[in-house]
Amino acid sequence: MNNQWNPEPAQLSNGSAVPGSDDRPRLGPRPSVHPPVDPGAAAAFGRPSGVDGAFSPRSPQQQPTFGELKTAPPAPEALASAFGRPEGNQELLQRPPSDEHGADGVDPWDADAAHDPWRDPSAGAVIGPPAVGPEKTDDDGESAPRPAAQLLSLPEVLFGRRVKVSALVLLAVLALVIGVGGGVAAYFIADRGDQLTSDATLAEVTAGKERPPGSVADIAQRVRPAVVTIEVRSEQGAGVGSGAVIDSGGYILTNEHVVTLGGAVTEGQQITVVFNDGQRAEAKLVGADPKMDLAVVKVDSDVSTVIQLGKSADLAVGDTVLAIGSPLGETDTVTLGIVSALNRPIVVGEEDGVPAVYDAIQTDAAINHGNSGGPLVDSTGALVGINTSIISTSEEGGSIGLGYAIPIDDARPVAESLIKTGKVNHADLGVNAASVSAETAEGARVQNVREGGAAAKAGIKQNDVIRKVGDRPIANAAELIVAVRHYKVGDTVPVVLARDGRELTVQVTLQSD
């Protein structure tokens, strides 16, 4: 490189001197300054291996234009003839092919042109191909995919010194930490997750809740096996009721209207008893008492569970009672209630002939059609009544909380008599009476006296008003009947009556009806 003044004048291509060129210095390229190269930058941006120049080496067939300088390939002939130097011209800085300056009188090739590498052919920066090999193409002329870089094998990584040992150790420690952390996290997740899913075996339990002796569940469990469903079929129809097993010999106490279908059938009916466990057995009618609406049927097989008989006289209003039976065909049904009233005279079936009259226990335990003949039990599970009738405001006869049961104290002698003899006799006063209520007298007015009966022998006359039998006041005709039936045949009972405005007491020895 030469920065000194060149006294030789510049010449044009025809050999003549350029006007005004003898007073201009000719400058070469500025000296190159090479600062220290950072190793990291050299590794990232340095020349590829085997490349010494600024661009990739040429093929052996192509010789460099300026000695060992790597240059671009020869320019196309059209460009060389248009923009190249004239033949034989060796000037380093090309000048316009004219002796004149520009149109404005200013030489466009001033001193700054000598510092412009793009107009100085001898500048160090030479345009050439990039430092990569020629792009490969396939048979179709499309660019072929470049081969993937060679991957390092495990021996090369460990023993080929291609990776630093410290990096391998750090990677191993990092992998160990990740593995230990993942194991600990998995342990806690699995420990908490077994609350939802696990292979645990569920333990079997006994009772779901405590049922102490005397509870409703305990009473029902003990009594239900002694309660049966009674199905009656005949040519005239069919019906369903309930019953209670009162003897291990197969005797079952129920209502008379259950086995006779309300009086429509007296014989020829088919009676089937369905036990609590589903077993069925044919039954026969032992005897019936239409005046008390009670009947006893018997099955030939022995039964294992018999209901315990209680005492209705020990009941008090408010005591807990359970009604068990088959209401509306729903077998083995238990309802709970209390004793709503005692000694409630009830007359049933007056329109069918002989009315049934009994001194009932009133309860609010739900009783419906099909409960008839089933047991009413107290808080000990003892039988205290036979469910018989209800008062209802609907045509279907649904329960409104007014149900009635025959007291067991009245039903027990009837059942014993039916089992022994097939029939029953009640104590009778020997009169027909009607209910009366007036300012002077209230009770049962005698309409007629049966000749030779107990009342006739005691001197009771027609139109006498019976106001008391024994210790029980009489308010109506039904109460007179149930009061007399509390006594046995042959008992002598004081009867208080009103006659012509005065009160009389007579002793009556009761006869059989």
From TrEMBL:
Molecular-function annotations in GO: serine-type endopeptidase activity
GO biological process: proteolysis
Pfam families, sorted: PDZ_2, Trypsin_2
Alphabetic keyword roster: Hydrolase, Membrane, Protease, Transmembrane, Transmembrane helix
Composition skew (Polar residues), residue ranges: 1-16
Membrane-spanning ranges: 168-190
Residue span(s) of domain PDZ: 418-501
Spans annotated as Disordered: 1-146
Family annotation (SMART domains): PDZ
The keyword Protease appears for this protein: yes
Family (UniProt): Belongs to the peptidase S1C family.
Protein's recorded name: S1-C subfamily serine protease
